[in-house]
Amino acid sequence: MCQIFAGQDPDNYSYISRSIRLDGQVTSIRLEGLYWSILDDVAESQGFTTPAFISKLHHEVLELRGAPQNFTSLLRSACLIYMDNRLATRMEEERHLKAS
Fold first, then answer.
1. End-to-end alpha-carbon separation of the chain, Å?
2. What CATH topology corresponds to 10-99?
3. d(CA 59, CA 63)
4. pLDDT tens readout for residues 63-89
5. Structural domain boundaries of the chain?
6. Residues 39-58: pLDDT tens digits?
7. Which site in 24, 36, 98, 99 is 20 to 30 Å from 63, CA atoms measured?
């Protein structure tokens, strides 16, 4: 049953650090490889590079809520929201195709 999870590519859960400039300061963000892949997709879908998307997201969070306690957790949550929305969109499209 767990083969889909246990048998996954170790690159999915290996940490990768990237240097990002946030509000003029260079910082390092450390996330699992799978999250970086999703963030790359999110950024591309919004017409940004990944660093530019992360910087914009950071700026918007600061404006809305102030400094996040854990920005990497916010990034992981954003990835899950993005994937959940993609799945919902796909399911809605399939529903429309079946109804046609």
1. 35
2. Ribbon-helix-helix fold (1.10.3990)
3. 6
4. 999 999 999 999 999 999 999 999 999
5. 10-99
6. 999 999 999 999 999 999 99
7. 36
